[in-house]
Amino acid sequence: MAVVLSSDSCDICKRKLMQCVVDGKTRSGQWAYMCPDCRIEEGRIELGTGLGQKYERGPWSNQAWVKTAG
User: Fold this and answer.
1) How far is it, in rounded angstroms, from Cα 55 to Cα 65?
2) Is 62 helix (H, G, I), strand (E, B) or coil?
3) Sheet harboring 52-57: ordered strands across?
4) What is the bridge-based pairing of β-strands 65-69 and 31-34?
5) Which of 39, 60, 64, 69 could bridge to 43 as Cys pair (CB 3.0-4.6 Å)?
6) Residue 15 CB neighbour total at 10 angstroms
7) How far, in Å, are 41, 50, 60, 65 from residue 6 at the CA level?
8) Which of helix, strand or coil describes residue 8?
9) 19-65 pLDDT per residue, tens
10) What pLDDT does residue 64 have?
């Protein structure tokens, strides 16, 4: 199943999301769309229910994201 995210940039550093994004909980407890770099610095490493999900660009569209973990 593919989804369209409500944001096209990282909530923390504001850079454009390219091929991978984590919709997950930060260390402070808030949730954010995070690029891979910000996930390492600000996010939790674990993924799953109540922690976060990882999405990658779908092969058929630059707008659709496919859940690949969590």
Assistant:
1) 6
2) coil
3) 2-3, 65-69, 52-57, 20-25, 31-34
4) unpaired
5) 39
6) 11
7) 23, 19, 19, 11
8) coil
9) 899 999 998 989 999 999 999 999 888 899 988 999 988 776 666 78
10) 77
Reported as type and span, the H/E element at residue 46 is none
Q: Where are the alpha helices (DSSP H) in 1-70?
A: 36-42
C-alpha distances in Å from residue 61, one per residue of 2, 17, 43: 10, 14, 27
- Domain residue limits, the chain: 2-69
Quick check: pTM over 0.90? no
Q: Given this model, what pLDDT does residue 63 score?
A: 66
Q: Let me know the angle formed at the C-alpha of 42 by 40 and 45, rounded to the nearest 5 degrees.
A: 50
| Cα separation, 25 vs 58, whole angstroms | 23
